[in-house]
Design brief:
This protein is of the alpha/beta class and 365 residues long. It has three domains: 3-101 and 333-353, Udp-n-acetylmuramoylalanyl-d-glutamate--2,6- Diaminopimelate Ligase, Chain: A, domain 1 (3-Layer(aba) Sandwich); 110-126 and 241-325, NIF3 (NGG1p interacting factor 3)-like (Udp-n-acetylmuramoylalanyl-d-glutamate--2,6- Diaminopimelate Ligase, Chain: A, domain 1), CATH 3.40.1390.30; 132-232, Alpha-Beta Plaits (2-Layer Sandwich), CATH 3.30.70.120. It contains eleven helices and 15 strands. A six-stranded mixed β-sheet has the order 5-10-12-13-14-11. A five-stranded mixed β-sheet has the order 1-4-3-2-15, with helices on both faces. Strands 7-8-6-9 form a four-stranded antiparallel β-sheet, with helices on one face. Strand 3 (60-63), helix 3 and strand 4 form a beta-alpha-beta unit.
């Protein structure tokens, strides 16, 4: 098993195209062609994490947070970033980060894990991404339409929110004139031909384009397949920031804070006041202030996230309770999430959870 095989599986779940523009997800140190001796999963990748990987004989670290966000101009041990990268390179340890792309997926994503820990029901993306969906239009002989639809669906086309195998078909006729270099089975060279055809339209996600087009070409009877791809402004209900769902039953604010503290194994919660019972809950792992208005517009009673600044707490406006549980605390179960993803797919090498607490924030209680 090679590092590239691990990466392909992770990116089939959280495509790199879904990472935010400021992010640096992907293979930061190492080569995809190297054999994997073991994988260490961590939230952060720091010197202690690399040393743990060395001790555990793991040559790949899969971390949520990238150790490098911007360019490094020097490698002289001046700070923890340089020291970590140098230590990894010296010991042939590859480092892979799966950050905001893992935040931005509905299935097997960071926010889905938080919602699971809190027992939220009827979950959906809090702020769906727009522009991630593409319409594929293709044309084929009437007799081949069912086979082509099935091939497209099998490759992942036709998904719209909770629905699958969605398509639209119209009938018509197509014309072509075969050139001298064409396959002789298409008809007489130089003569214009008319075929009874159907037009098939399906929605696909941008990361699926190559896979779906390959399936289309393999299933299509024509030597040259006619198709068009159109960008859309539709929101992708399966990709975006944050998540919102409902508790099984409403709780008082005191009971909800107790439930939150117990479910997420917290030492402390910073929160605003709110008098209404808590039923609808929005969540966002990491720094989530940017989604506060989304949570309010969807009438969440509580918003669980981290990294609010003092004056930003006033923005709750008594519309909901802001529950700031800490950055590390909001994302620490991402380690469990990634462990389950890799163990389910790969069983021929060690997949280990890091035992290093990388939280730089401590509490005196």
């Amino acid at each position: 098993m090679r590092i590239g095989d691990i990466i392909r599986h992770l990116e089939s779940i959280a495509p790199p195209s879904l990472q935010e523009s400021y992010d640096n997800s992907g293979l930061i140190v190492g080569e995809k062609s190297r054999e994997v001796s073991g994988v260490l999963i961590s939230l952060d990748c720091i010197e202690a994490t690399v040393n743990e990987a060395i001790d555990q004989k793991c040559n790949l670290i899969v971390a949520h947070h990238p150790i490098v966000f911007g360019g490094l101009k020097r490698f002289n041990n001046a700070n923890y970033v340089q020291r970590t990268v140098q230590l990894a390179i010296k010991n042939d340890i590859a480092m892979y980060a799966i950050h905001t792309n893992l935040d931005n997926v509905y299935s097997n994503g960071v926010n889905g894990k938080i919602a699971e820990k809190l027992g939220l029901l009827n979950t959906r993306i809090l702020a769906p991404k727009a522009g991630e969906l593409v319409k594929l239009v293709t044309y084929c002989p009437t007799a081949n339409q069912e086979a082509i639809r099935e091939a497209l669906f099998a490759a992942g086309a036709g998904g719209i929110s909770a629905f699958s195998e969605c398509s639209f078909t119209t009938t018509g006729s197509g014309t072509f004139r075969a050139g001298s270099g064409s396959n002789p089975t298409v008809g007489e060279v130089g003569k214009r031909h008319t075929e009874s055809e159907v037009k098939i339209e399906v929605i696909i996600g941008k990361p699926q384009i190559n896979t779906v087009l390959s399936a289309l070409r393999n299933a299509h009877p024509y030597e040259e397949v006619a198709y068009e791809l159109y960008p859309t402004l539709n929101e992708d209900k399966n990709a975006g920031s944050g998540m919102i769902g409902e508790l099984d039953s409403a709780m008082s604010i005191e009971d909800f804070l107790g439930h939150l503290k117990s479910s997420m194994d917290l030492k402390v919660i910073k929160h605003t006041s709110f008098k209404k019972p808590i039923k609808k809950v929005a969540v966002c792992g990491g720094s989530g202030q940017f989604l506060l208005e989304n949570a309010k517009s969807l009438e969440a009673d509580a918003y669980v996230t981290s990294d609010f600044k003092y004056h930003e707490y006033f923005d709750a406006e008594n519309d909901l309770t802001i529950c700031d549980i800490g950055h590390y605390e909001s994302e620490k179960y991402t380690i469990d999430l990634l462990f389950d993803i890799l163990r389910e797919k790969f069983s021929t090498f060690a997949v280990l959870k890091s035992g290093v607490n990388t939280n730089p924030v401590n509490y005196f209680i």
